[in-house]
Amino acid sequence: MSILLPDALQGIADRLPLPTGERLRDLALHGELSDHLRRRLLEGLAELAADSDRADEDCLQRLRQQLGLVSDEALEAWRRRMGLDLSDLRRCATYPRRLQQATEDTWGPSLPGRFLERRADLDQVVLSLVRFRDPDLAQELWFQLREGELAFGELVERHATGSDRDRRGLVGPIPLQRLHPLLARVVSRYAERAVVPPIDIDGTVHLVRIESIQRAELDERVRGRLLLELREAWLAEQMARLQDRMLAEPGALTEGVVAT
After folding, report:
1. DSSP letters along 26-56, please?
2. Domain-by-domain residue ranges, the chain?
3. Contact at 8 Å (CB) between 99 and 49?
4. Which fold has domain 124-214?
5. Is 66:15 a contact under the CB 8 Å cutoff?
6. Facing residues of 195 across strands?
7. What is the pLDDT of residues 189-235, one digit of tens each?
8. Considering Cα of 132, then 138, then 141, then 146, what sign does the dihedral take?
9. Longest dimension (CA), the chain
């Protein structure tokens, strides 16, 4: 899915000032160069967010609490010790809010389409599962399960071994995408409580009952996950471009200094 980014975000890695001299050396020696560049890119993203006086005041109070300071006077004293002016302090305090707002403004409109693309990966299932080496035994037991002659709990008690027995046959909740592809394809065709015909995966026959299917919805949790995925994809692309610049420009350090 192609997303049209604002002009301010396109090629930001090509415009970002790189650290030089002792600053560059110090960041590299302490393994902090990658974190520094990631933060600078995210600050560039956060700059797209609009100001909000009321929200900014809340951010200042939150920063004071995070620093363990008991009063506004203590925050002012901290600001002076750090050598920050008032605009620096406000910029620091509002960074989390501005980053979240800019992330939402940039990628929020694309979430419905992204959700449709990823929905199958976001669905979760709970399965009862027992594995067999003997395909004939597995087939016979499946017939018994299908005809109601055997309950799946009895199957687990009588035939489960190893980790299947330890889990009492239960697997999940687990994202559909984390199942073996063949198992995921078969499971996705059946409804809850269905007993799936025997599935041979690399010489091991699986007997499966679908206990529940939790269909993903575009709720706040999923929205947050998808927004983070999209932002991280953009960030990885920009970091790769920064690495190219670091290696190409005069004075760049050895290959691999910038790690994504």
Report:
1. HHHHTT-HHHHHHHHHHHHHHTTSPP-HHHH
2. 12-114+219-248, 124-214
3. yes
4. Chitinase A; domain 3 (3.10.50)
5. no
6. 209
7. 888 888 989 999 988 999 999 999 888 889 999 999 999 999 999 99
8. positive
9. 78
